[in-house]
Amino acid sequence: MKTSKILPFVLLAPALIMIVFAQLYPALYTFYLSAQEMDAGVQKFVGMENFRRVFDSSAFVESAWNTVIFIAGYILLTMLLGMGLALLLNRKLKFSGFYLAMLFIPWVLSDVIVGLVWKLFVDPDTGLFSPILELPFFGLEGAALLTKVPTDRLFDSIPFPPAPALIYLIIASVWKALPFVTLLMLAALQTVPKEVLESAQMDGANSRQSFLGITFPMILPSLIVALFNLVLGGMNGVGMVFSLTGGGPGTSTEVLSYLLYSIGFAQFDFGKAAALSVFIAMINLALILLALRVSRQGAEQYA
After folding, report:
1. pTM above 0.90, yes or no
2. DSSP bridge partners of 43
3. How far, in Å, CA of 272 to CA of 278, rounded?
4. I need a surface site. Which of 5, 109, 173, 226 has the fewest CB within 10 A?
5. Number of domains in the chain
6. Residue 225 sits in a domain of what CATH number?
7. Which helix (H) or strand (E) holds 243?
């Protein structure tokens, strides 16, 4: 009897040990490192000083606003385009299998590769988009998309309107994330019973009413999953920024995740980098809790 009770814990022990060493220990060490500072090669306790150094820097303020603008545009465009494509593919179009196969291409590529490809698209000499960007509507002479720094901001401390490079970064990130969101929404749409939709149509409901009253509540859990992934990916992703813009021009595309990379691996200020990583982790937790609350309220509203 005792063996049968202990056996599950014995079988789980290797996985639990791996979790402790791979996740728990690095997290705790990051909290410890955020309160330390290197002085003449010796670590010393500085308390919250690293957090003060992070929050008082102008680079942090600009990176925070860049992150807000990036995530807002990234999530909005990806969700809208993903829903539109999913609704279109759900109609059983001709060659829909081919379209689904093509959707997988951006998904299987790494962020760094996607960034390099989209960087080649705007090369001044050979870029595919260069002739379009040089039209009067865009006004980017020499296709200077990744080098033009905006000079006319509406607010002194807020980088708005964003730099063309940041808009381009959003578009490239949407292209990368669109397959996952589209396929997730398409799978959710295909679980909606056709009989229920047909009954609603027989009762006089139009397409908009059927979608808002029946389809949307049923696919809401999948929408929340997509939203979670987009929020976390947009907040923590650094590969696309690294390979496409490098944070430039200037600091116009330096989001918080790239600022963390710069502080830790360019300046080697690990205490300050650890403090910023703790702050980003708290923001991630707050966003997840907010999304859970919104989803719970939405579920209760449509129940």
Report:
1. no
2. 38
3. 10
4. 5
5. 1
6. 1.10.3720.10
7. helix 239-244
